[in-house]
Amino acid sequence: MDKRILKLLWDRQERGLEEMAAAYGQRLYGIAYNILGNRHDAEECVNDTYLVLWNTIPPQRPEPLIAYACRVGRNIALNRLRSDSTQKRDSRYDLSLDELAGCIPSASMEQVMDGRILGQSINKFLTTLPKTSRIIFLRRYYFGDSVKKIAGSLSLSENTVSVRLNRIREKLRKFLEKEELL
Amino acid sequence: MKDTLKDALNEIDDTYIAEAAEPYRRNSMISLVAALAAMLVLVISIAFMLGDYPRGPVQMGSQPGTSGFYPSSGTSSGPHINPSSAPTTPPTIPDSFSVPLVDFTKEPEKLTGLQQIGQADDTDSGEPLPGLIFYTHMLVVEARVKEVLPDLYKRASWRTPCYVLVMETLDAMNVDNMPEEFYFLIPSDLCPDLHQFDSLILCLQQEGVENYLLINQSTATYEAFDNMFECFYLEDWGSVIAFRDGKLDNSLWDLPNWAGYSNWDDEFDAIEEGRYWHFFPGGRNSTLEECKEAIRQEINRYEGKQHKKVFFQADFGDFTYIAPFENGVFEHTINIVDNSISITQTINGIETNEHCYLENGVIKPRYFTKDDLSSLPDLGAILEIISKDMNSMIPPFAKEYLDQGYVVANAWAEPEYCKKDETVYGIIKLVWHLGNIPDDYAGKTISRYFLITPDGTCRTDAWDEVDKIINPWKYDYPYNFHFDSIAQLKQTIAIAKDRPNDFGDFVLIENICYWHPVWEPSYPNQDVRLLEKWLQTTVVPCRKDHEDTVMSVHYYSKRCYEKDRLEFLYDINGIRYCFVVSDSPAWNPEGNVVTTVQIGSISADLREGSYGNTTGLMAHFYVNDVVISMWVDTTDPNEVDLSGFFLSTIFAIE
Q: Dihedral sign, CA of A58, A64, A70, A76?
């Protein structure tokens, strides 16, 4: 499907955006909504995402396309969140970040400073996780999905997802200690 | 702290994001009950997902000037993304354009094709079957590596360099006519490991039947391969399973370059403990025969519920043999989309663009004939001339951007041969990507077209002709391709009918997009006709001066709103103007009348009004049997400049 969408976008056919929206619109909307907690802003973010895709493809041929789209959409939503000082900071995404930050002592986080270094370590950590756990981690802390939604999409109970998230966070904490980041 | 975390999460690898973003594929040991249960769960999951959020990006806001498809930055310069966090591809400025030389004269003996095999359709409904279990809809083949070709190949510049393996088919498990030998394209870092195993079970997708072209990295020439296959879901655990001495050999997955499979141990644990439903045709120490039997059972479950479109050239008897062009080469890649088939041939490194249509099941071919091929204009020679002096060909309006600090970050040419009304044309599209401006990561993309007629004449002033050649579906099938007919509207608006085209043949396409309800792909024809009625009888608020003030054009059906509406958004001197054309007012002005405004001969009261937290000015222009509702995002009536607008019919009256 990605190949086809890319081909359409490279051919400057808006149908590529249609197919993109049909295939990934819900996911992009979910990310934006989780971060911004506002339906209207989320819709605008998604439309901005399509515009970026339209303007950047070509020349880019991102693979995988969905990852590129999610990254763009997430950045747009985060920038919007940052730029709007009046935005309430209690979105679903913020709540999930609180959860993740809870497993890392704040003093250590300040020492880390550079999010990129931490990000590289998280990437390494993800390679150690089983696929399902990795998906749960991404959906919770990258996409900001609710536990209920994750559980529903993976056919797991909410309790199972919660327990697994706890374990993943604990694993992450130990991993970061081992990496001497904490 | 949270900002650091956000930045950190931004570093997460694309592979993982894609993995999590895709619908989760449940797998497990084979059981019909389990399969049905899983499908039920999937349906519930989808229903749950839909219920969890307001419906997707398709329900546009009702606030004028804030719905639709446009940059949120308040300018027409594109969306703003933090450059440091945006995905990056280093821009390159090409020194010259080089078209890979073709050194291949092999004659195709039959029509060749590219077909998406990775989908099985229900034979009754024609609908795609659920893709829960890829063994049922991929080509499942047991094969072994016979040879690894020494050179690295690329399909296109953006693809990962690959090796080509010569594979021997040992058991075609769900394919009738699998060739005894086939080529297998695989990323270079994964290839060297495969030859050491006795056999592999592969979930394959056919990429080409004949003359599948790859660029040889060493020689910079095209080479052609027959029977090319890829493992499209290569990174999905289980799409490549290795066997040695008759037993599943997980040592493949322990190799560092197969890291995507590195959690196989945990996956097996999960299967054994029944932690989640997971289809994998074996377990630890499974034999080859056990795995194959499990796959057969999985395939049989869908027996009669799907058909595979493996090699489809035999189905198209109406196609005739196409003779090779002297010194050239053919590659036939075919995609069946809706009722059309597009054929691309590569001739001397330049692609053709041919369209065939299916009308009542009958193919209506428009592909090139042998005579066409003997009289092709020499695109390569013209391309060479153009590429030497591309900078001088940049459109005038693009130079304005350069004055603002934009630089040409990337530029390229897209040559192709096209056939229209029994005549073969050459088309060269030059594209400039302008960028390197802070806070405008996306930059701007500007195109210019050259039309080369059979006698070799090169024209730069023929956009209308080019449009008909490269987008024939817009003109031939307006109702079947209804979205495209709306796109045609875009052109009409962008290049206003009654004013001279300031830029010669240059067409500014950025910031002019249209939108439609994505959840309704089968757009009823009557909606399009209604739109056309508006166009023919009514009004479009065009701006005379620069089309780049048009930020967006949208058409919403009554599925988005309670009524159909055509929406235009402009950005003029930093002020947004939103016009909504509909059969009744799009919103109710609620404030006092501040003045009277006029567009052409039509006047209206300008009133204060607000939507949500945004205050502005509103007016309704009544023309014939429609209403144009206008909203401007300023409260100062002196800032409202409607002088450049005119209300035009398709014949441009004022």
A: negative
3-state secondary structure at position A25: helix
Query: Per-residue DSSP letters for B442-487?
Result: S-EEEEEEEEE-TT--EESS-HHHHHHHH-HHHHH-TTTTHHHHHH
The torsion of the CA quartet B9, B15, B21, B25, rounded to 10 degrees, works out to: -140
Structure tokens belonging to residue A173 = 């904490």
Cα atoms in the 13 Å half-sphere on the side-chain side of B354:
25
- Which is nearest to B576 in space by CA: B70, B127, B55? B70
Residues of A in contact with B56 (CB under 8 A): 21, 25-26, 29, 46
Q: Are B489 and B478 in contact (CB under 8 A)?
A: no
CA–CA dist B580, B626 (Å, integer) = 10
Substitution target in A4, A38, A55 with the highest count of B β-carbons within 10 Å is A55
Give how far the C-alpha of residue B570 lies from the chain's centroid of Cα atoms, to the nearest Å.
27
Partner-chain residue, chosen from B41, B44, B71, that has the shortest CB–CB distance to A48: B71
CA pair distance A3, B25, nearest whole angstrom = 20
DSSP conformational letter for B300: H
For B55, name the nearest residue in chain A, comparing CA atoms only.
A26
Whole-angstrom Cα distance, residue B525 to residue B595? 41
**Which amino acid type is present at position B368?**
F
Contact residues on chain B for A78, CB-CB shorter than 8 A: 6, 85
Question: Is any Cβ of chain A less than 8 angstroms from the Cβ of B3?
Answer: yes
Higher per-residue pLDDT: B322 or B175 = B175
Q: Quick one: tokens of A170?
A: 């604990």
Distance from CA of A118 to the nearest CA of B (A): 5
Lowest mean pLDDT among B22-36, B142-156, B159-173: B22-36
Q: How far apart are CA B539 and CA B230, in angstroms?
A: 52
Q: What is the dihedral sign for C-alpha B548, B549, B552, B555?
A: negative
SS3 content of chain B, % helix, strand, coil (to 5): 25, 30, 45
**Percentages of chain A per state (helix, strand, coil), in multiples of 5:** 75, 0, 25
Hey, which residues 416-435 in chain B have their CB within 8 Å of chain A?
431, 433
Mind telling me how many Å the CA of A174 is from chain B's nearest CA? 17
**CA B482 to CA B485: how far, in whole Å?**
5
HEC profile of A76-131 = HHHHHHHHCCCCCCCCHHHHHHHHHHCCCCHHHHHHHCCHHHHHHHHHHHHHCCCH
User: For B526-556, how does the pLDDT look when each residue is reduced to its tens digit (9 = 90+)?
Assistant: 344 444 445 444 556 665 544 445 555 555 5
B499: left (phi over 0), alpha (psi -120 to 50) or beta: beta
Q: Are A135 and A170 in contact (CB under 8 A)?
A: no
Asked if B515's CB is within 8 angstroms of A115's CB, the reply is: no
Q: Which of residues 299-318 of B touch A (CB under 8 A)?
A: none
Q: Residue B221 in contact with residue B215, Cβ under 8 Å?
A: yes
Q: Could you read off the pLDDT of B83-101 as tens digits, one per residue? A: 222 222 322 323 332 333 3
The Cα–Cα gap between B643 and B598 comes to 8
The predicted complex's ipTM stands at 0.72
